[in-house]
Design goal:
By secondary structure, the protein is α+β, with helices and mostly antiparallel strands. Helix content is 18%, strand content 32%. β5 and β6 form a beta hairpin. The N and C termini lie far apart (54 Å).
Amino acid sequence: MSTTVVEPVMASECAALRAWVEGRMIFLELTDGRIVGFPADRFPRLKNASAEQLQLVTLEVDGFALRWEELDEDITVPGVVAGRFPSSLQLR
């Protein structure tokens, strides 16, 4: 007989240690040492944000979410790492 331990999905995925913006690119430093980036324009609310508004990103939920309070935008870090972005049809 074997035993399988199932951990919560978020516990097995990387969280962000920090987030920053350069131009219109959002960058994340992950707990596993990777640095990933994505263009702000991949998300409708970020696409219409000013450079100053983009800079106001904060990490939430122990590094598993990005938050832009002024824009009322939340993006999951696991979603970004997995490449889950809105489709181009949603951006029009």
